[in-house]
Amino acid sequence: MNIIVCIKQVPNVKEVKWDPDTGNLIRTGLPSIINVNDKNALEAALVLKEKHGGKVTVISMGPPQVEESLREALGMGVDEAVQLSDKAFAGADCWATSHTLALAVKKLSGADLVLLGVEAMDGNTAQVGPELAEALGLPILSYALSIDVDGKAVKVTQKLGDVVRVLEADLPAVITVEKEANEPRVAPMDCVLEACEKDVPVWKAETIGADEENCGLKGSPTRLRKIFSPKVTRGQVELFSGSLDEVAEKFVAKLKELYYL
Amino acid sequence: MGSEMYFGKEHEMVRRAVRDFVDKVINPRVDEWEEAEIAPLHELFKKMGDLGFLGIRYDPKYGGGGMDYWAETAFLEELARIHCGGIPMAIAVQTNMATPAIDEFGSEFLKEKYLAPAIAGDLVAAIAVTEPGAGSDVAALTTFAQKDGDHYVINGSKTYITNGTQADFLTLLARTSENPGYHSFSLFVVETKTPGFSVSRKLKKMGMRSSDTAELFFDNVRVPAENLIGAENEGFIQQMMQFQHERFTVLPFSYVAAKRIIEETIEHLKKRIVFGKPLITKQVLRHRLAEWLSDAEALKQLAYHIVRMKTARQDASKEISMGKLLAAQLMNKVTDGCLQMYGGLGFMEEMPISRAYRDSRLIAIGGGASEIMCEIIARLEGF
After folding, report:
1. What total number of domains does chain B contain?
2. The complex's ipTM?
3. How far apart are CA B50 and CA B56, in angstroms?
4. Does B108 lie in the same domain as B13?
């Protein structure tokens, strides 16, 4: 079984610091990590490989430092990694990203499965997986909690809010993996040491035959006008006392008084 | 910042893997182990051994990673992110306190029989040097190993032994000659299943609670002569060299933990409103925190200098002694000062700063007290 996993390198939001005077993010020294959901996709791919054999290839689009994340994935046991780095790719929105990833997947001669995390923790759009499936002309099985491959078909347990559904599709297919799907493995030292030695080719726009008009900022229909932190308005706190029912009644009355209900 | 000047890609990958393990496997269970006053070391070390974490610097022939001191430093820095001092200490006993002498001076037999399983996490190790009547004054040891044919017969006791209630083997320093001077001691590997060995009692401690500490008793314990590490009567010198590996661990443990404690305190002070303003706006507190961060950075740079010395195979005994001395001072200062900034909340046992305060107190005592560090520094400076 041939599996391709697409990962994104994101800032480690747990270690984000803010300038107290300007309110801006302090970017200097901010460590980067593999997007949390994408690690679940990597784990799912490795489990499928252990069960069915084959090869797992990881690809990531981003600046030169995404090599760190690709090597981290190799350390987890992934067989091969490809880095998509080109100035032409910079500033890509979901559409341009999925277009570029699709060209890379095709350049790799496709796969039985293409796995991604459900969404990236810095953008939270959850669009790249479905748009990649569209670009590849493959079925999309999103929000996967479990993945079972049987012959030429794949069955996925899908979590949509409180609803859990079971979906089936023929291979090849694209799957986005939920955080609850698994517990990503810790990279063992022998794989880590091997990962340091592996070749990670860098593909540019011309390598994958990408038209620069369809990549990066140029190819992105989305226009980002402004990024801002929402203003936090200080309100008054009112505490209700009494039994649970009394408190609930008082709370509802207050909401009505303030015209929220 | 600037650490990329020292750590290469492979070191950063070691760091990420260890960090991942600490976050997923260790930190979620620290509170439980602190409460139980013991951690399941066989279970924990097996997991770490399977991942290759217990022999990063050791020879691949025995299952080690064959990496350099920078990789070991990255490993130790990540252990310092564990939410207590006890577990990093227990792990460091396995990797940096009880096994370096076997690696450096041990026979092929000892490396195969004890070092390889320790690296694999199949055996738990402890270092047994201190005795009820001999701590920093190591030369005052009285536990005696009497040669008897192809065995040594050991009698005596050891105390304050980390991992002591769970260890499968001890790296033990015993007297092998009545002659005065340093050439009267030998290092042995002693299996704890040997008849005559017993754990006299498990000791209750002020801090480092998740790590078990024991008093051990040896009553005619017969150890095969092949379990002698290196040459007979040269154990004191070998242990002094092994101490360098042990003492170095304190540096990364301290500068990383100090920085984390300071950052947690800063977050608390930002939220704690006193007289209408967050406490962090008080200049006296800000300056104190800034000074401690500077001290932690200086200690880190000393540690990196030591790594460079060790890489160049230079003797770093003086610098390591200086580092351990400074690390103890830093941690005592930071944990005491930060606890003060938390006020009454910091005095509550449930608070991490309370645990850090209790745990840190050991640094100036264990592995050679601060006073001994000063004596070593003075002697090596020639006064």
Report:
1. 3
2. 0.78
3. 12
4. yes
